[in-house]
Specification:
Elements: H1 2-16, H2 21-32, H3 45-74, H4 77-82, H5 107-116
Helix pairs in contact: 1-2, 1-3
């Protein structure tokens, strides 16, 4: 989605404001990043409207991306994306009475661990 906004913004500045391509890209990047370093050229009212749209799109995509990452982290989806959780149980014959085992994972992992022990 971010790439789409960059392409949209660059093309829009290029056609609406008649900016050279690199300057249109630069203007899009400083707008999306909310840096707002400085306008390269004075913007027309249409250019200002375009800038407002790009700011809203950039902030929205950033917020959605952060929300998805936080949600994935909370639900453990990041581990699934990186590969299933590594499950190497300690052989039960090496455990002694009083040993403490800490299990971090989901119910399915605990069930697999109980089956092994």
């Amino acid at each position: 989605m971010l790439i789409g906004i960059v392409i949209f913004g660059t093309c829009a500045y290029y056609f609406v404001e008649k900016m050279p391509l690199f300057e249109a890209f630069y203007m899009t990047m400083i707008t999306i990043s909310t840096l707002g370093y400085a306008e390269i050229l004075l913007l027309s009212p249409a250019g200002r409207d375009l800038t407002i749209i790009i700011i809203i799109l950039g902030i929205t995509v950033g917020a959605i991306t952060i929300g998805l990452l936080v949600n994935a982290f909370i639900e453990g989806e990041l581990l699934k994306m990186a590969g299933n959780m590594i499950f190497n149980p300690m052989p039960s014959e090496t455990l002694e009475a009083g040993d403490v085992i800490v299990v971090i994972g989901k119910k399915e992992d605990l069930k697999r661990m109980n089956a092994v022990m």
